[in-house]
């Protein structure tokens, strides 16, 4: 059981380490920016394609519009010829009718082309808005990324210092210093105790000699003071 528990703990540690690497804020931000740039490229490509379709629909609408006017002009010209006797009236009516039919067909195509143009131009407007918004977002996050990099460096350095301080507090260094302090205090106390023991072990002769030495010193001091006092008296006379 102990072996499997250790293996499980090792797996947990590796998973947490991998998760920490995956959640690196700077790397994740940079990856997010790359993803947005890919989306921007795709959006620009889609915008270009839809714009091309809108331009094509517009060109088709212009073509059908011109065709409509052309068929109407042809029908009027044929009827004009019939009035001048240049063409049989019944034949003119037949041809003019065909021209008007072509005009109606072209008008229907014009209507479809205009609807397509309107639809495509609406899509172009939306895509263009999204592209501009995406560009603005990318620019914003590129600036944020630069700030995050700087903040990450500061926080990493701060964390390193704090970790070192924490390790010092939790390591044996402080404990060792405390033990050295206690050891010095023990040595000082031991020296003081030996001094007291030495004083207790003095013989009676040592004590007598010590008292006599002190007394002698006192008599000499008194004699010196008396001599100095006599000199002062003579000086006054």
CATH class of the largest domain: Mainly Alpha
Q: How does the overall form come out from the CA principal axes? A: rod-shaped
Tell me the strand percentage band: under 5%
Query: What proportion of the residues is helical, as a percent range?
Result: over 70%
> How would a textbook summarize the main sheet?
none
Q: Which superfamily, in CATH terms, is the homologous superfamily of the largest domain?
A: Helix Hairpins
Helix and strand run: HHHHH
pLDDT under 50 segments (min length 5)?
Answer: 6-10, 15-19
> Ends: how far apart?
111 Å
Mean pLDDT: 79
Structural class computed from helices and strand pairing: mainly alpha
**Rg value:** 55 Å
What CATH architecture label of the largest domain applies?
Orthogonal Bundle
For the record, the count of structural domains works out to 3
Let me know the number of strands.
0
Q: List the total number of helices.
A: 5
* CATH fold description of the largest domain: Helix Hairpins
Write structural notes for this entry.
By secondary structure, this protein is mostly helical. The protein contains five helices and no strands. It has helices spanning about 1-20, 25-85, 90-170, 170-200, 205-235. The relative contact order is 0.06. Residues about 5-10 and about 15-20 have low confidence and may be disordered.
